[in-house]
Amino acid sequence: MLNANLINSLSGLLILSSLLVIETRKLRISAIYYSVQSLVLVVIFLALAVSMHAEQLYLWAASAFITKAILVPYIIYRAQQYTGGEDVPTAIKPTLSIVLAAVSLVVSFVVINQLELKIAAGFKPALAVSVAHFFFGQLCILTQRNLLKQVMGFCLMENGSHLTLALMAYDAPELVEIGIATDAIFGVLIMAVLAVQIYRKLNTLDAASLTTLKG
Amino acid sequence: MYAQSLSWLLLAPFLLSLAAFAMRWAGKRSIWLAELIHLVSITAVLLLSMHVVQGVLAQGSISALNDWLHVDALAAVFVTIVGVVGFLVGVYALGYIRHDLSSGVLQPQQVTLFYGLLNLFLFTMLLVVVSNNIIMMWVAVEATTLGSAFLVGIYGQRASLEAAWKYVIICTVGVAFGLYGTILVYSDAVHFMKEPGMAILWTQIVENAQALDPTILKLAFVFVMIGFGTKAGIFPMHAWLPDAHSEAPSPVSALLSGVLLKCALFVVIRFAIILSRGIGAEFPHLILLIFGALSVTVSTLFMFVQRDLKRLLAYSSVENIGLIVLALGVGGPLGVLAGLMHAVNHSLVKSLMFLTSGNILMKYHTRDLGKIHGMLQAAPLTSLLLLAGGLALAGSPPFNIFISKFSIFSAGMQSGHIWLMLVCLAFLAVAFAALLRVISSSLFGQAPDEMAAGEVQPLTLAPIAVLLVLAITLGLYLPPQIALLLNQAAGIALPPGSVASAPGALLNWLVLP
């Protein structure tokens, strides 16, 4: 039970760190916060591995450490170097986006509490956090106009769905985890390259300037 | 033997795509070698897919790699689409890309990248339709987006990069919902299966569908519909589609519309089957009817106001995907069969139309319908293909789409959805008008003065002509093997027992000339 408490409280840290990722204006700092968050996720995977006796999760922890704590922040860091760390305004005020985040957190808790789950029953708070985290990522994509910040939103989404997977599908075969991790890292890489290409063409990372195609 | 073909069907395009990427460093011969590798790859995909389908007809289904790969008749229909359309579009791409290269739109290095990505894209689509592991199926759908993102943006122009960005963002966000649907089903199934490894297999889940929790199944299906529906271009999640389909190079547009949308829809069908076995077909049918009818009605209006040829074709894809979804929502033997037939027919005709639009683009250097006139004089062969393809797409006889559209509406009327069908028919008339307008304004009128008569790239005409022959053939006569395959596929999608009485009657109806 101690372990369940540990996991549930660690998942609370995820919420805090993702708010920092979303609200920090400087991409470099944002990438560092993301790296910290991914380390928390790695610790959660390890704790889950111990408490559920799920050997596979050690592999998940290792791959999350390499891809999420090191590679993704590095890709974002390099991409922002290419694009000169431009300061792009956000679509809505930070206070409003925090309110929206809080709303999605409450909704996730309510919905998860009503589901009758046979699996991960002791981890409902962590599960709710993982779902909320998924919506935080989408919120980030919708409210941030900086293309690279939208990529970070995609990463937050991935962290959320990855935690859901670890809680509900930890006994899935390893190859599945390898496939998902590969998709995630290539996804970030491709988006970052596209963002840099767009910057070179348009000389801005502002999504509001992507208005050629309509109707 | 068939199992080996199935494994090679995935391995061949994957390995050959890596080889095509590597040709970047092959020096002077790099383009020629990349073209050769591409040709070998698409030929291998065509032959292997036909062999796999033959195996399904002979023995019912084929499995490989511990049941992680599984091709039944339903999957075989989609394997056929990838194999045949993939091959013909692949041949067309040789001529089209050469033209892009000679006119300076693409650089030599981009050509090797293009062939590598195109074959990687084929591999990911094949992986979607042959996966039996539902999470791997999701991984494959996500991989199709990643594989095709650079293909959409390969021209590096402002509009194409914007389209690629929207495509990646909307599809990855959308498809992530699909992952939640998949996890819900898996985590519920894992309880009563002997081994966790079994709960991940579609074949096992379907057999034990009645043990699944009804609430979780419904929730999962909504997630699946949003997630994979985004990728399938179903309204209102279709926002990426008109941009990506119009900005991509024409062979890529043909693959996106003709093949990719069907692969995503295939995943929706797989989950709808789990639901209908588990809790009955009412819930999935309702959801499918709503999304299908919305897609048909809204997209036809968008078609009517388009002035860009490729955007118009893109909205027509939303319409036709909507029709397939509508047919699946009507259900019953005729509905499901008509839906599957329409999937095949639309693949052939829409890839035909996008490839023809590529020829028009090579000749006129524009997609603006206000500037494309006088094709009958300027490019007589292409204009005939546009005429036939446009009529086929609009649903006139003797082309294949007429048969499947007619079947969809018969099925809908028979099952009592009379008003819904009448409304959708009225909107189809709008689509018909939009397509007739394209044909008449492009074929007739005055070609630009400085334009010489003749085709730009004769090599590109052959694959389109083959697609046209297929479209006419399937409109007049359904070969027994295809009828059998579609019939068995419908049998998988229908509740057990309901098909037993159906095959004879349906076959008679369909095979009649």
Percentage of residues in DSSP E strands of chain B: under 5%
N-to-C order of helices and strands of chain A: HHHHHHH
Strand order of the largest sheet of chain B: 1-2
Q: Outline the low-pLDDT stretches of chain B.
A: 500-505
Q: Tell me which protein chains meet in the greatest interface and how many residues each side has.
A: A-B, 44 and 49 residues
Overall description:
The complex is a heterodimer of chains A (215) and B (513). Chain A contains seven helices and no strands. With 215 residues, chain A is mainly α. Chain A has one domain. In chain A, helix 1 runs antiparallel to helix 2 and helix 6 packs antiparallel against helix 7. The mean pLDDT of chain A is 86. With 513 residues, chain B is mainly alpha-helical. Chain B has a domain of 233 residues. Helices cover 78% and strands 1% of the residues of chain B. Chain B has a two-stranded antiparallel ribbon with strand order 1-2. In chain B, helix 3 runs parallel beside helix 14, helix 4 runs parallel beside helix 11 and helix 16 packs antiparallel against helix 18. About 1% of the residues of chain B have low confidence. Chains A and B meet through helix 5, helix 6 and helix 7 of A and helix 5, helix 6, helix 9 and helix 10 of B.
Strand and helix layout:
The complex is a heterodimer of chains A (215) and B (513).
Chain A: H1 2-23, H2 27-52, H3 56-82, H4 94-114, H5 124-143, H6 147-168, H7 174-202
Chain B: H1 2-22, H2 30-59, E1 62-64, E2 69-71, H3 73-102, H4 108-130, H5 134-152, H6 158-189, H7 196-199, H8 202-207, H9 214-232, H10 241-247, H11 250-279, H12 282-305, H13 309-330, H14 332-364, H15 375-378, H16 380-394, H17 400-414, H18 418-443, H19 461-476, H20 480-493, H21 502-511
Antiparallel strand pairs in B: 1-2
Helix pairs in contact in B: 1-2, 1-4, 2-3, 2-4, 3-4, 3-11, 3-14, 3-19, 3-20, 4-5, 4-11, 5-6, 5-11, 6-9, 6-10, 9-11, 10-11, 10-13, 11-12, 11-13, 11-14, 12-13, 12-18, 13-14, 13-17, 14-16, 14-17, 14-19, 14-20, 16-18, 16-19, 17-18, 17-19, 20-21
